[in-house]
Amino acid sequence: HRQSGLGKSTLVNTLFKSQVSRKSSGWNREEKIPKTVEIKAIGHVIEEGGVKMKLTVIDTPGFGDQINNENCWEPIEKYINEQYEKFLKEEVNIARKKHIPDTRVHCCLYFISPTGHSLRPLDLEFMKHLSKVVNIIPVIAKADTMTLEEKIEFKQRVRKELEVNGIEFYPQKEFDEDLEDKMENDKIRQESMPFAVVGSDKEYQVNEKRVLGRKTPWGIIEVENVTHCEFALLRDFVIRTHLQDLKEVTHNIHYETYRAKRLNDNGGLPPVSNDTEETHESNL
Ligand SMILES: Nc1nc2c(ncn2[C@@H]2O[C@H](COP(=O)(O)OP(=O)(O)OP(=O)(O)O)[C@@H](O)[C@H]2O)c(=O)[nH]1
Ligand SMILES: [Mg+2]
User: Fold this and answer.
1) Is the CB–ligand 1 distance for residue 97 below 6 Å?
2) Ligand number nearest to the C-alpha of 229
3) Ligand 1 in reach of 65 Cβ (< 6 A)
4) Cβ count within 10 A of residue 15
5) What is the mean pLDDT of residues 102-127?
6) Where does the pLDDT of residue 144 fall: very low under 50, low under 70, confident under 90, or very high at 90 and above?
7) Closest approach atom of ligand 1 to CA 13
8) Between the CA atoms of 109, 113, 117 and 121, what dihedral angle is there, to the nearest 10 degrees?
């Protein structure tokens, strides 16, 4: 769940500090990451396959630890919808910009507590609601606190519970375009999800190399080593292999749903055309 202290802010740092942007310096912070108290966008330019891309990650406070957790996904939903609204306003503008700044959220990482138990009703509620407006990717937080067996079992359990509760996470079955797509995505849905991640912004010396890692009683967990945890797999998934598709699903499905609803609700808006410019912005 998006509870406090699950390592969300740490993972944001890990993402920007890991290979994609090793060049950027000044990150070797020793100070403790403060509790996140508001929704905050953090953007960096990263280079992917020779193409410069602006990646923005929106860090959110943890919640679900209040006495009353009712509708606790609302601030997130509001933020997501505000970005759709901004985009829509630009789109219907007659003198519309050639390039509409795209702040729409292309993917939402949902942090699940590594309890080994069932998902909480709140987790299910959150994902059920938000999966209708954004691409949800569930991740198991702080995977270094589980043994390998516990991790495998917990991943299975979470997948089962999501299925039983009819929660559609990304990549959604209904959007598989052909058989090849379906085969590839079935593998992701049935084996990779939810990625069990470890985050850290501290470097350690391992075999002559500086690596991002966490010190545990069993040794250093290297966050970018795929035999230690699935951080690198998650990173490659969201910013390499599935980036374009995340953006397309956002535009063609989630944004389109919002847009249709808005135009329906408010007959005042003129009809809008669909041919938005390609952009290189990505927002998680
Ligand atoms: N064991 C372990 N601890 C972690 C991991 N990631 C972060 N932590 C620790 O967990 C604590 C909270 O980390 P944050 O990144 O601030 O967590 P957060 O989810 O942003 O917390 P809030 O902003 O308060 O919701 C810190 O002491 C981190 O060092 C991880 O992968 N494994
Ligand atoms: Mg935080």
Assistant:
1) no
2) 1
3) no
4) 23
5) 94
6) very high
7) 15
8) -60
Ligand nearest, relative to CA of residue 4: 1
Region 162-168 average pLDDT: 95
Instruction: Indicate the residue type of 261.
Output: K
Q: How many domains does the chain have?
A: 1
Give distance in angstroms: CA of 4 to centre of ligand 1.
8
Cβ 76 vs Cβ 130: under 8 Å:
yes
From 1, 6, 113, mutation site for ligand 1 pocket: most ligand atoms within 8 A of C-beta = 6
The residue segments making up the domain with residue 250 are 8-21+32-92+100-198+226-265
Instruction: Decide: 142 in ligand 1 pocket, CB within 6 A.
Output: yes
Within a domain: 139: yes
CB of 9 within 6 A of ligand 1: the answer is yes
- Within 13 Å of residue 131, how many CA atoms lie on the same side as its CB? 21
CATH number at residue 49: 3.40.50.300
Tell whether 127 is covered by a domain: yes
Summarised one tens digit per residue, pLDDT across range 42-90 is 998 888 778 888 999 999 998 766 667 778 889 999 999 999 999 999 9
Establish whether residue 114 lines the binding site of ligand 1, counting it when its CB lies within 6 angstroms of any ligand atom.
no
Most informative mutation of 14, 31, 33 for ligand 1 (most atoms within 8 A of CB): 33
**Per-residue model confidence (pLDDT) at position 1:** 45
Asked if 72 and 3 touch (Cβ cutoff 8 Å), the reply is no
pLDDT digits (tens, 9 = 90+) for 85-110: 999 999 888 777 788 899 999 999 99
Runs of H (alpha helix) within 165-212: 179-187
**Closest residue to atom 9 of ligand 1, CA basis:** 7
Checking if the pLDDT of 282 tops 80, the result is no
Is residue 53 within 8 A of residue 278, CB to CB? The reply is no
Q: Residue 279 domain-assigned?
A: no
Answer yes or no: is pLDDT of 278 > 90.
no
